[in-house]
Amino acid sequence: MLSTLSSLSGRSLSRSTLYENIKTGLFVYILLRQTLKAKRHIQARGLFTTISEIHRWISQEVVLLVLRLPSAKAKVEEEMGKAKLDIENQLVPKGPNVVRHLYLPQEGQSLEWILAEMDKMDQEKDGADWRHGRISGAVYHGGDDIEKIIVAAYQRYCVSNPLHPDIFPAVRKMEAEIVAMCLRMYNNLDGAGTMTSGGTESIIMSMKTHRDWAREVKGVTEPEIIIPSSAHAAFDKGGAYLGIKVHTIPVDPITRKVNLKHVKRAINSNTIMLVGSTINFPDGNQDDIVGLGALAARYKVGLHVDCCLGSFIVPFLEKAGLAGGNVQGKYKLEPFDFRVKGVTAISCDTHKYGFSPKGTSVVMYRDAELRRHQYYVLPDWSGGVYASPSLSGSRPGALIAGTWAAMQYMGDKGYLESCRSIVTCARTIAERITTSIDELYILGSPPASVVAFASSHPQGTINVSIAAVQSFVGRSAK
Ligand SMILES: Cc1ncc(COP(=O)(O)O)c(C=O)c1O
Description:
It is a single chain. By secondary structure, this protein is of the alpha/beta class. Among the domains are: 149-407, Type I PLP-dependent aspartate aminotransferase-like (Major domain) (Aspartate Aminotransferase, domain 2, 3-Layer(aba) Sandwich); 420-477, Alpha-Beta Complex (Aspartate Aminotransferase, domain 1). Helix content is 49%, strand content 10%. It has helices at 2-45, 47-67, 70-91, 111-124, 144-156, 169-185, 199-218, 234-242, 260-266, 289-299, 368-371, 397-436, 465-477; strands at 192-196, 224-228, 245-249, 271-277, 302-307, 345-348, 361-365, 376-378, 386-388, 440-442, 453-455. The strands form 3 sheets. A 7-stranded mixed sheet has the order 1-7-6-5-4-2-3, sandwiched between helices. A two-stranded antiparallel ribbon has the order 8-9. A two-stranded antiparallel sheet has the order 10-11. Helix 1 runs antiparallel to helix 9. The N and C termini lie far apart (105 Å). Bound molecules: pyridoxal-5'-phosphate (PLP). Residues 198-200, 232, 234, 277, 280-281, 306, 308-309, 349, 361 line the site of pyridoxal-5'-phosphate. Belongs to the group II decarboxylase family. Sphingosine-1-phosphate lyase subfamily.
């Protein structure tokens, strides 16, 4: 009896010891994982940035807490109401002739009525005069003639949908040809790609592709990418959508190129992809793609080159005789396409300097094997086999047709000419700012179509120059 009792208590003792050991093991495992995560984070972002991130996070939490207090809540709601009204006044067409149509009309309206109503909306809000080149960025207009071509192609393929290639084989063919033409422009004859709805979707798809590739090939389950601080917000958006951690690395204040040493320090076993732009959105500069490519090849990670904005300008600079920059060596274009070792993907927006209809872009990969990771296939869906290359299911075949038509209409010669005239204009602006306005300087050495300037005044104020800049920007734009 005594021996049974002692063996029972011995067993429960050893069970509780086992339980304690498991608990301790689990605790050590979690502690180790979190320590490793923290180490990687600090290694990538630096101690100072990490501390300021923690400080910012705590401040935000405190502010949110304060805003929940009833008195603060009422004040915030009042201010938000004012801001909303302000935005509405700025953006929503208003006026005596504008009627808000919040119900379906009982009877369908005629084309004349619809166009007249649109006229009223356009007239009541005096939007920027983009048709005459009076707006910087935002609009990429190839001219009235190309608009007609696009509308004709759109009309013809209005209801087409490449989700059903058996019904619309012409659309599938046009999409494949658009991708092939872009791959050729970016010097990759063995590559692959797909069309998407715009630069953001191209970038997000490339992130997904590299994430799934790294999971399959390297077993990465906590993916991270490394981007320059000048990279487009689409990378942060993709990170938020896809559960990918984004490390943002500062750019050099003079060259505006990402700091390669810092990029190298941020690479770890979870890194799936590096990013560089040719050219970036904020100031039109180009990252050191050759340097990034060498890092990508050395650490066996992807390198996405964002040419969404460079699109149909950067591939033509060499042929236009503008890649070498000016006599002082400014505005020089460095290698950026698939000829650079380590580049695994490039995004190129047809709806920017390709002058195709809005809602089109191309994402390209070094080879078809990498592209495979972009696709989504559900073979046993109750509605039949579902296969789709990008975020959307149904896609507008009309936009593909419009893009194909625009590219056929422009041709190599058309894009070469547009590259020459746009870049010459940008460089004239940059040169005039440099030589005639002491208070301003050009950020970096932008090789293509975007020029950004800042104040050289110590307090960062610009006293006299905006009117002068506007007047000669206006002249150059003509
Ligand atoms: C460099 C760069 N990347 C990505 C994008 C995103 O393109 P989209 O607005 O077509 O989504 C832009 C847009 O201006 C851009 O300039």
